[in-house]
Fold this protein.
Amino acid sequence: MVMKDKGGIKMEHGAGGEGMRELLKLVLRYLNFNFSGGRDNDRVKIEVQVPLKAMDDSAVVDNVVFTTDSHTVKPLFFPGGDIGTLAIAGTVNDIAVMGAEPLCLSAAFVIEEGFSFSEFERILDSMRKTCEEAEVPVVTGDTKVVENGAVEKIVVNTSAIGKRTKVLDKNFEEVRRYRELDGNWLLDSNLRDGDKIIVSGYIGDHGVALLSFREGFGFDTELKSDIRPLNKLVHKILEVGGVVAMKDPTRGGLANSLNEFSDKSKVGILIEEERIPIRESVRNACEMLGIDPLEVGNEGKVVMGVVKEKAEDVLDALKETEKGKDAEIIGSVTKEIEGVVMKTRVGGRRIVETPIGDPVPRIC
């Protein structure tokens, strides 16, 4: 069965939201394997606990968490980071938001012939510094050099593995003091009626900072990308306990992450506009450009579902850290509505739909 071409793969198919889901459905049609009980007796058997079809931030195989990501950001260097910072932090964060401790990374480079050694060294130095901040090393990798025009300067692929730790078990013990929970990982499908939604800080910084720099808009010369590895922050939150689901709202932004929560957990989510942390400069830039800040990608934030009894404790723990000092409880999970709905500043309500894709292309 072949998908109708519809003009071929477009930018929107790689930008999060509905466009990317359409592409991923095609991938799943061919690569959604299930080897349970189907291997020969003399081969190693594996248990896939979180498979590809779950479309969470990482897979889990025999309690090993595994993820991979490719990065094609434009421009390569921007206020607050570069493609190297992005590659390491983004991949570490994909492991961390599953509740695992990132252990090590791979890094692979597809480099266009003629790319300067000085820029490549600058990227490598950013990767080294981000690895040191996260305390997660690169242990293997690959390089390919292709003819001019085959790629745009450089593509970086990073993969990582992580493992379950006692702090995740402690977190779930705290959850089960207040309600039932079937899963053993932080999954999009874990939310239930009454849970609170927390975001760790200002949203939209990464996408707007990169767009402003790329296009020369100059909305706010002080605005920088929020790219940071968040594994230590996540560990601190899990020590408090009560967290059931977590995502880093990258492509498609907060809107896409909340809709994934809602869709997979089969619950409604009601958020309050006045409680969502957005810088005034980001809000003004989005209004000028006609884009929704909730749909703009982030690279140093987490959005999480927490049992209501522990929400204030988790918020307090976040606010004690540099990376979570601007955190807020922005809403609740409810059975009274479907999908994601936002209570506006003026007292009305509007549906927060799954975006077609991130309105700012090539930001990760």
